[in-house]
Amino acid sequence: MRKKGREYAISIQHQEMGGTAEQKIANHLVCLGGTSGFKRKYLVLGGDGWSARANNRALNHHITNAATVRIIPLDRFVARARARLL
Questions:
Q1: 3 state DSSP class of 11
Q2: How far apart are CA 28 and CA 49, in angstroms?
Q3: Which residues contact residue 41 at a Cβ distance below 8 angstroms, ignoring those fewer than 6 apart?
Q4: In whole angstroms, what is the distance from residue 32 CA to residue 65 CA?
Q5: What is the DSSP letter of 23?
Q6: How many domains does the structure of the chain reveal?
Q7: CA distance 50 to 76
Q8: Is the CB of residue 10 less than 8 Å from the CB of residue 46?
Q9: Which pLDDT band, with edges at 50, 70 and 90, does 80 fall under?
């Protein structure tokens, strides 16, 4: 996504049922964290299948560059986008 000359890396994941959600989070953090040249990086989580642990950064402290990725629920991401706060 490009906004006023700034580029954003965004990965949107949807999970209806529990299971391998935490594994998916770790995989996307590795992929997004390894990218460069983006002003901001977002991992957007939609659906009811994410546990509270999926959004816990402490789970992902061992992943290189995970701190550069903002994990955010879908409804909050949409609200921020509409308010032009990305």
A1: strand
A2: 16
A3: 8, 9, 10, 32, 33, 35, 68, 69, 70
A4: 8
A5: H
A6: 1
A7: 15
A8: no
A9: very high
Q: Is residue 74 over pLDDT 60?
A: yes
Range of the domain at 74: 2-82
pLDDT of amino acid 79: 95
Give φ, ψ of 66 to 5 degrees. Answer: -65, -30
Q: What pTM was estimated for this model as a whole?
A: 0.77
Spell out where the chain has E strands: 2-3, 6-14, 40-46, 69-73
- Cα angle, residue 43 at apex, residues 39 and 47 outer, rounded to 5°: 150
Q: Which two tokens stand for residue 75?
A: 């409804």
**How confident is the model over 17-67, as pLDDT tens digits?**
766 666 778 788 888 888 888 888 998 988 887 766 555 555 556 666 777
